[in-house]
Design brief:
CATH superfamily of the largest domain in chain A: MetI-like
Membrane topology (chain B): Multi-pass membrane protein
Organism (chain B): Vreelandella maris
Strand content of chain A: under 5%
Number of helices of chain B: 14
Subcellular location (chain B): Cell membrane
Number of domains of chain A: 2
Order of helices and strands of chain B: HHHHHHHHHHHHHH
Number of domains of chain B: 2
CATH topology of the largest domain in chain B: MetI-like fold
Oligomer: heterodimer
Structural class of chain A: mainly alpha
Largest sheet of chain B: none
Distance between the termini of chain B: 17 Å
Structural class of chain B: mainly alpha
Pfam family, one (chain B): BPD_transp_1
Number of strands of chain B: 0
Family (chain B): Belongs to the binding-protein-dependent transport system permease family.
Helix content of chain A: over 70%
Strand content of chain B: under 5%
CATH architecture of the largest domain in chain B: Orthogonal Bundle
Number of helices of chain A: 14
CATH class of the largest domain in chain A: Mainly Alpha
Radius of gyration of chain B: 24 Å
Helix content of chain B: 55-70%
Largest sheet of chain A: none
CATH architecture of the largest domain in chain A: Orthogonal Bundle
Order of helices and strands of chain A: HHHHHHHHHHHHHH
Shape of chain B: flat
């Protein structure tokens, strides 16, 4: 039935109208695509945009255990700014984020370049480098918590080899614990950066490199001056994805350090969860969530801007 | 990038040796935690405290695995992670199927039936890929309560579908953009309708992107912890939440071998998917991030 209806209409219209690519307007067929998209658009408007707005409204209220709509202006934001734990969490995110992104990029690009030298067993190595990305951050946290356990983990192992003075107890040291998060997160995500770079390298035109070789450029020089500039979009995407992972990091902290010792390894994501769900500070939690959103937008907007620009120019 | 290095000179040979050395060291860095996890999970406790991380199990035992599956305490209950393992499947399977179906239809409508504003609709939905989920947690908790599905599997399925369709739509839209429009236009002229064209023309060529979408959604939802911990009760928790509870339950002696066995159990499904379909896994990860 559905199919026969437009058939009749098409045959009734002059031939040229068929080229207008869709069935005549007004029919159900013309509206079907929009009908199919409607639920998703509604979901997106409500659950993404509506909820963002809702959280923003909550952040302007004095809500504690339960949401209330007693507005206190930007009071929660000034409380947040005066909250020492929030500053610890934000500083931690800066340290963690920068180290995580930089180390992942360094390891990922290095491994990709090395793997690109006609390596035997490349497939097997690639599989090994990338598998942590398939794991849950909770699993990663549990495993690394075990490895970093001073009494039974890496420290104990090296000491048993005869290096009695060897120390690797960062996970119990409030000043160093944040770096254990970096180690575990790099372990999990650097293989992914390798995969991104390798895909980028394989997409580069051989002739550019051949030409540079004929000019007598050395291998490191070729990579630095010729290949790397071609990979700028890959670097950009990788930074963007890694920064995004860093801001959203929650599971890893929960599983590896629990935010401790004390709150030494709190990140904004765990701060938000603790205040909104366990410490009955919904207003404050909402304010911190809004600042997290602000952080993501600060990264996202330049990215989208350059994407749109390059699409226009490309 | 082939043939960049020639192999004749001794210097080149040394370089090759170094190259393999670095690559193998890196491989050890990635693989050793898994090896340690596996070995620890089959050691009796006495061997763990006596030996070191890398000492091979002398009397391998599967007791930690059976304990982790059926007896270990996760918070107040001592029923192991087995039930939660099935919980995860009960949440993941419907959520993956629904979000992939919706994503496929969305991607199809957005590319083959463009209308005024369809690009805007896509941009609007795409934003959902980027938000930090902390910003939706509190309203979501309240909405699930209103719908009468808070702390239920249905609630978690809804959450994963809602925040999954941004990704699945992106996958299918980018895939269908590359499918030539000629066939679709011809079918339209012949009077074929929206669903008929999808069923007969698009779906038969969609296998690769369906695999990518299913794998991506499966790993994402299986590995989820934030939604799981925020929106579940003790009997509806996914396995990641149960694992975290198990590791943090402090009653009696810390049984590291049971912890590791439970971690292996939680990790196995996504590892199996990765090993069986690694190519598609990578494609999902890189989709949208490496532009041609």
């Amino acid at each position: 039935m559905r199919d026969s209806l437009p058939m009749k209409n098409t045959s009734a219209t002059p031939l040229g109208a068929g080229a207008k690519r869709s069935t005549p307007s007004g029919g159900l067929q013309a509206w079907l695509p929009r009908l199919v998209l409607a639920p998703s658009v509604a979901i997106s408007l409500f659950f993404v945009y509506g909820f963002m707005l809702w959280t923003f409204v909550l952040s302007l209220t004095s809500s504690r255990m339960l949401p209330s709509y007693d507005f206190v202006g930007f009071g929660q934001y000034s409380r947040l700014m005066a909250n020492e734990r929030w500053w610890v969490a934000s500083t931690n995110l800066m340290i963690f984020g920068v180290l995580f992104v930089v180390i992942c990029l360094a390891i990922g690009s290095l491994l990709a370049i090395l793997l690109d030298q006609k390596i035997r067993q490349e497939g097997a190595l690639r599989t090994i480098y990338l598998y942590p990305m398939a794991l849950s951050f909770i699993v990663t946290g549990v495993v690394w918590k075990w490895l970093l356990n001073p009494q039974l983990g890496i420290q104990a192992m090296v000491q048993s080899w005869g290096f009695e003075s060897f120390r690797f107890d960062w996970i119990t040291d409030p000043d160093m614990a944040i770096y254990t998060l970096v180690i575990a997160a790099v372990w999990q995500a650097s293989g992914f950066v390798m995969a991104l770079f390798l895909a980028g390298l394989r997409g580069i035109d051989d002739s550019i490199v051949k030409a540079a070789q004929l000019d007598g450029a050395s291998l490191p020089r070729i990579y630095w001056r010729v290949v790397m500039p071609c990979l700028r979009p890959v670097v950009f995407s990788a930074v963007m994805i890694l920064a995004h992972i860093a801001i959203k990091s929650f599971d890893l902290v929960v599983a590896l350090t629990g935010g401790g010792p004390g709150y030494a390894t709190d990140l904004p994501a765990t701060f938000m969860y603790a205040h909104a769900f366990t410490r009955a500070q919904i207003g404050l939690g909402s304010a911190s969530a809004m600042l997290m959103l602000g952080g993501v937008l600060a990264i996202l907007i330049p990215y989208l801007y350059s994407e749109l620009r390059s699409r226009k120019h490309g | 990038m082939a043939n960049v290095i020639r192999r004749q000179t001794p210097a080149a040979r040394l370089f090759r040796g170094l190259l393999y050395g670095v690559l193998i060291l890196a491989a050890l860095f990635y693989i050793l935690p898994l090896v340690v996890m596996l070995m620890t999970s089959v050691k009796p406790l006495s061997e763990i405290s006596a030996g070191s991380l890398l000492s091979l199990p002398q009397n391998p035992t599967l007791t930690p695995w059976t304990k982790a599956w059926g007896e270990a305490c996760t918070g107040m209950r001592c029923e192991g992670v087995g039930g939660y393992f099935w919980n995860s499947f009960a949440i993941v399977i419907p959520a993956v199927l629904i979000s992939t179906t919706i994503g496929a239809l969305n991607g199809y409508a957005l590319t083959k039936w463009r209308f005024k504003g369809s690009e805007l609709v896509f941009a609007l939905m795409l934003f959902g890929c980027f938000i930090p989920f902390q910003v939706v947690l509190l309203p979501m908790a309240q909405t699930l309560g209103w719908l009468g599905i808070s702390s239920s599997r249905a609630g978690l399925i809804l959450v994963h579908v809602v925040f999954g369709i941004a990704f699945t739509t992106l996958f299918f839209r980018n895939f269908y953009v590359g499918i030539p429009n000629e066939l679709v236009s011809a079918a339209k002229l012949d009077g074929a309708g929206f669903f008929r064209i999808f069923w007969r023309i698009l779906l038969p060529v969609s296998a690769p992107i369906i695999v990518v979408s299913v794998i991506w959604q499966f790993t994402q939802i299986w590995n989820d912890f934030l939604f799981g911990v925020a929106f579940s009760a003790h009997n509806t928790q996914p396995v990641t939440v149960a694992l975290n509870n198990l590791v943090n339950t402090s009653t009696g002696v810390r049984e590291y071998n049971v912890d590791m066995a439970a971690a292996m159990i939680a990790a196995l499904p996504t590892l199996v998917v990765y090993v069986l379909a690694g190519k598609y896994f990578v494609r999902g990860l890189t989709a949208g991030s490496v532009k041609g």
